[in-house]
Amino acid sequence: MNYIDGASLQKMLLAAAAVIELHKQPINDLNVFPVPDGDTGTNMSMTLNAAANDLRKLNGATLTKVADTAASAMLRGARGNSGVILSLLFRGFSKSLKGLEACDGTQLAAALTSGVEAAYKAVMKPTEGTILTVARVSAADATSASRKNATFESVLIAAVESATNALAQTQFQNPVLEKAGVVDAGGKGWLFVLEAMLAIAQGKEIEMPEVTETQSKEQADFSDFDTENITFQYCTEFIVNRENEKDPEALRAFLSELGDSLVLVDDDEIIKVHVHTNHPGKAMEEALKYGSFATVKVENMKLQHSEKVMSEEEKAEYVAPAEKTYGMVAVCAGKGLANAFRELGADNIIEGGQTMNPSTQDILEKVNATPSEIVYVFPNNKNIIMAAEQAIPLTKKKLIVIPSKTIPQGISAMLMFDPEADADTNTQTMTEAMANVTTMQITYAARDSDFDGHDIHAGEYLALYGSALFGSNVSAAMLLRGMAEKLAEEGKEYITIFYGADINEEQAQAAASIFKEVCADAEIAVIDGGQPVYYYLISAE
């Protein structure tokens, strides 16, 4: 094959998506760190599949159109650092092919080089022995090969051979990989991509996954319902702590005149209310006569309806008008953690975290839906920061990513937000606040591993201190005690324990008692975070 056109590139990229999907688990298995993660293979597969979904809709598209479509879809669908880097490789690839009707070996080498340049430019501290290394070395060798033989197939063969050799070397460029005896997962994924493209160039068939339209409805159709039929706009829910002997029936009578869909339940300690009304403020003001609020939630049902009937394209393009200067978006998993961020001022929550990294598109939609001029995003996971940063040029709003790597860092940063300060001051203050918080976490080992001298077995409890391994043990209590002793040595004064979905309150209180015993002078709080994967997230300052 001397050159390719749009149809050939389209088939190559679909093949690459299929191959990565087929091999995503073997790629995941190359991840050395034993923490359950939004693994490399999964993230690369989801990123490429975002492009595949759009590519399948094209018919007779030009080379430029195919490349642009793939790059745009991957940018928005990028998940995790590996997915973002993959999207950047194809973004540079697309820019190099712009305006071309065909691509020969020389142009392929230039496109691969352009992709590498785009990826290295975006990564603040490039690390050798990763997908970046494999892509850079293979692009350089492809360029050299193009000077001898400029056919597309010969240059791609050179790129694949070079990537194969470069991948083998990654094991010796990273001490952790060398100790584990494995190559880099992202680099392996990139080799699969190049090999899939070469297979198509050589006329080989690759099994493509079948794409079928779902026949049954997965949710109700709200499109025929007019928002004018919503008489009372705000769904208002709250719980009041009873602090006097006032009769709740009087509140029931007041609220029944104020709206509809009223449900009021009371006992000796609380009054729980659900009501649809156009005056939530009046409802809450009346409720305050009975005691203080434990929880409050007000939702605009007309806005919710509009979001339900929007098409995916309309959702992607919708930008909420600015009603205030600052807004906030936080990434987390777990109802308790989501409530904590909302109480700190988060306008929108993105469901996601360690095992499911949200895409750039997921982040973009929540940013655009935030009714403010400036939107701060708190990724709360190191593998989500790059995806959040890729949303910056895609939104009309001023998007600022606070690079929080953990939930406690995100919470500490938000606590320092000052609505009266300017954006730069807030950014600096919140970023600095993250350095003052220590994060400890207990999860489970997803795989056997020998890490930093620790012999780790799948299923054991695994403790992390910051991003480093603290230890592993069959006993969570032993790890908790070790953590408490370390925090006591460091003189931490405020300790917050967020317990996860797999921990009950009794177990959480038992964990807290260990910290109260060992860190006798510290103030200790226990919160039901409801997070998956992590049994405990511990914040200390």
Characterise the protein shown here.
With 541 residues, this protein is an alpha+beta fold. Helix content is 48%, strand content 19%. The chain has 20 helices and 18 strands. The protein has a 6-stranded mixed beta sheet. Residues 211-228 have low confidence and may be disordered.
- Mean of all residue-level pLDDT scores: 88
Shape: globular
Say how many strands there are: 18
Over all CA atoms, what is the radius of gyration?
Answer: 27 Å
Fraction in beta strands: 15-25%
**Distance between the amino and carboxyl termini:** 62 Å
Helix share of residues? 40-55%
Low-pLDDT parts are 211-228
Question: Quick one: biggest sheet?
Answer: 6 strands, mixed
Helix and strand content put the structural class at alpha+beta
Count of separate DSSP helical elements: 20
Strand order of the largest sheet: 15-14-11-18-16-17
What's the short story on this structure?
The chain is 48% helix and 19% strand. The chain is of the alpha+beta class and 541 residues long.
Fill in the keyword field for this structure.
4-stranded antiparallel sheet; single chain; alpha+beta
Helices and strands in order:
Blueprint: E1 3-4, H1 6-28, H2 40-55, H3 63-77, H4 80-97, E2 103-104, H5 105-122, H6 131-146, H7 152-173, H8 175-180, H9 185-201, E3 234-242, H10 248-258, E4 259-266, E5 270-277, H11 280-287, E6 291-300, H12 301-309, H13 312-317, E7 324-332, H14 335-343, E8 348-351, H15 360-368, E9 372-378, H16 385-390, E10 398-401, H17 407-415, H18 423-434, E11 438-444, E12 449-451, E13 454-456, E14 461-465, E15 468-473, H19 476-489, E16 494-499, H20 505-518, E17 523-528, E18 536-540
Parallel strand pairs: 7-8, 7-9, 9-10, 16-17
Antiparallel strand pairs: 1-2, 3-5, 3-6, 4-5, 11-14, 11-18, 12-13, 14-15, 16-18
